[in-house]
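Throughout our pipeline, every protein is held as a single compact record rather than as scattered files. The record that follows is passed on verbatim for readers who wish to inspect the format:
___
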Amino acid sequence: MNWIKKQVNNIVKKHKTNCPFEVSESKNIHVVYWDLHSEIWGFYKYERRNRFIFINDNLEYHRQRYVCAHELGHALLHTKVNTPFLQANTFYSIDKIEREANEFAVNLLLYDKNLEDYETKFECLRENGIPLEMERFL
C-alpha cells in the first residue's frame, strides 16, 4: 500500500467516514462555496494557520464532492503549499502535487467501493462522480 492510500485509510478509520465534507469539518478546514469562473472548480488556501477549501458553487453536487476531496488532499498532504502562487511566480512544477491530490481524492471517494462490482473502471468513476481522467489512479 502506498503512502497516499495509507493516509486515506487512517483518515477514514479515524473519522469513520470517507465524505470529504465531513472530514474537512472535523479537521477544522473551512469549506467556502464561491461564484468562481467556470474554468475554476476550486482551490485550497492556507493563511495564518487557517485552512480553506474554496469550491465553485456553480458546479453540480457530484463535482463539488470531487473538488472537495481533491482540495482536502492538498490540505492534508501539502498543508502550506500554495500551488496558484507557485504556478504564477516560479518555475516549480506542480504536476507531482496535483497528481498526489488527485490520487488522494480517488482513493477517498472510492474507499468502500469494490471495482469488481462495476462493469468497467469508467462506470465506477461515473457512478461516483469522479472525472474519467482519474482512471489511472484505480
